[in-house]
Structures are given as C-alpha cells and as structure tokens.
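Illustration 12: Transcriptional regulator, PadR family.
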Amino acid sequence: MSPDLTDGELMLLGLLAEQPRHGYELEKVIEQRGMRAWTALGFSSIYYVLDKLAKRGLIEATDAPSSVKSRVTFRVTPLGRELCAAATRDALATPTPMRARVLIGMANSPRLPDADMVAGLTQRRGAVRQQLTEIRETRTRQEPLPMAASAIFDYSEAMLAADADWTETTLNALMQEATVDKYNVKKTHRELYSPPSKEFTVVDVPEFQYIAVEGSGDPNTSAGYANAVQALYGVAYTLKFASKETLGRDFVVAPLEGLWRADDPTVFTTRDKDRWGWTMMISQPGWITEDMVRAAVDNVSKKKDNPALADVRLHTRIEGTCVQILHIGSYDDEAPVLDRLHNQYMPEHGLTFNGDHHEIYLSDPRKTAPAKLRTVLRQPVKRG
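Figure caption equivalent — predicted structure in token form:
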C-alpha cells in the first residue's frame, strides 16, 4: 500500500473514482459489496475521511454545500485520480502483511489455562464461520458479478476459509493434547506439596526418584549451587520433551527441591550458610530411566558448558515419616519456624531427626516477592 493513503482513504477514493457519490451512498455501496471486512472503516468514519481527502485536494464537492452533510456529493479531482491509480497499482503488487491479532493471542496463550484456550478458539471458530456465511450470502445476492468483483469475493472467501481451517486444526490439536494425562507430582501427591501454613502435620512420604546434584556452601554466593540448579532445570525440561516425543508420556516439570545437612543442626536456625551441605533435586516420574537421564545430560552439554552437568544423577529416596509445614515468606525468615519445629514440636511429640532437612520451592524467586515465597519445610523424623 502506498504510504500516502490509508486503506480506508484508498477505498473511498476508488469508489468516488467510479462516479460521484455522497456519504450515504458510499455507506450503501460499502455494505452491499461486503467491503467493510477489508478495512476498519466504520459508518461514522466516512465523513471524517472525506474531510481529510477534501483538505488534501483529492476530492471536491460537486455543488454548493448542503445543510444535510450526508447529501453533499463528492467527486475525485485530477490529483486524486492520479494518486488513486498509483496507490492501486502498489496495492496489487504488494503482499498483505500478516498482522492477525490471533497470532499475538497464540504467543501469549501458554500463560492461560487450557480451558480458556479451548473456549477462545471455539468462539473464534464460530465467528469465522459466520463471517464466511455472510460473505457468501452477500456474493449470491449480487451475482452475476464482473471479474474484479468476483476476484474480490474469491479472495475474501479464501482467507476466511483458511482461517476457519487453521482454527479448527489448532483447536483439535489443543483438545487432543489436553486429553493426554500429564503426570504432575504436585497433584498426584497433593498432601505432600500443599501442607497447611499454620500448623505442623505428619505425613508418610513414599519412594520418589529425582535428578540430583550435590554440593556445599552458601547458596546465595556459591557458583556451584547456581550451576547445579541451572543444570537440573536444563536436564528436567530435556527429559520432559524426550519423554513426550519418544514414549508419548508427558509430565509437568516438578518444583526444585533441596536436602540440607550439617554436622550441627543449629546452623540452620543461626543461618550459618557456609557450613551447609546440600543436594538439589527435581522429582521425576517413575518411567524416567538412567539411560534417559544420561542422554538428556549429553544433549544439554552440547548446548551449554556447565560443569555441574557431569554431576547430575538419578537418585531414589524414601523419607518415610516426616513433619512438614508451608512457610510463606523469605528463605531467611525460616529460622523461627525451624526453631519451633526442632525445639518445641519434635521434643513434645517424642520425635528426633531421621534424615536431611528437606525444602520444596513452590515459588519462582525471580518472579515472586520475598514476602510471598511459598516453601514446604519438611523434616524426616523417628521416635527418639
């Protein structure tokens, strides 16, 4: 399209180049020919565009101004006819850019629930089909049509039919994917991943397998810790995609978890992080094998140089009886909760330590304010 004329301006200029018309006649022709679908030109905008074209000297009134604005008849000036012809040649030669708003919707759709996507595309499918029906009815009412008009309807029908086919295909693919039973450890073991935040609860934790990396030192400053977390997420997502592609079994990547240990448990309440040892983990479905993990590690290693990848291993763990609570707040504010667990709850219930302190990070600290972080604090226990 020539930059000198908008779509709406070129459309009105072309209609006036056919013959002089007033505003109401222009609206009738636009409606009869189904031209409204080509631009965003509404009825109330016609007079605004006519005024713009007149001020540019591209059209002019054929007679004295009328008291009824819609009855002022306009005709194209020689300058307007010349510019209309140039813009028309450009419009015929230039491909239409793809700016469908639905493409933005699809780009943003991963942040919506599947049900919202299905509902939106279902509504779109109905609306596109209705537009296609209306275009065909408009065409039928005006047949026989000259070649140019017939070609215009052909194009409109082809675009709407392609849109309808795309929407139908996308919707079917989405619904098929939504019916696949994705394994989600947080839903399958809801009682272990959504404890209350007001009181400690006792749970029995069965066998789980994880991909894991071990290390030690302050997680806030240790390069080894940062590398371990990055390696685990890289391998976890690679395993997810490989599982879906090769086994047809999909799963939701589980949250990051950490086992924390020290010779003296009081370092957790004093927050002496340099003396902490840790094993960072991400839970894996039972069908993930050691060979799959090795293949995933090799795959990620080709794309990213991370020394922690060599330490990723498949780890099986049974914690048994545990006491846990949901902590809401900064990681550094866990000390009072742990002090209450270690020095009040456990002694009062005749319990003692039976394994590493376990934390499950339900929130992404990169996107969540410290005061709103949600962390499961879990301690394996035994009668003491």
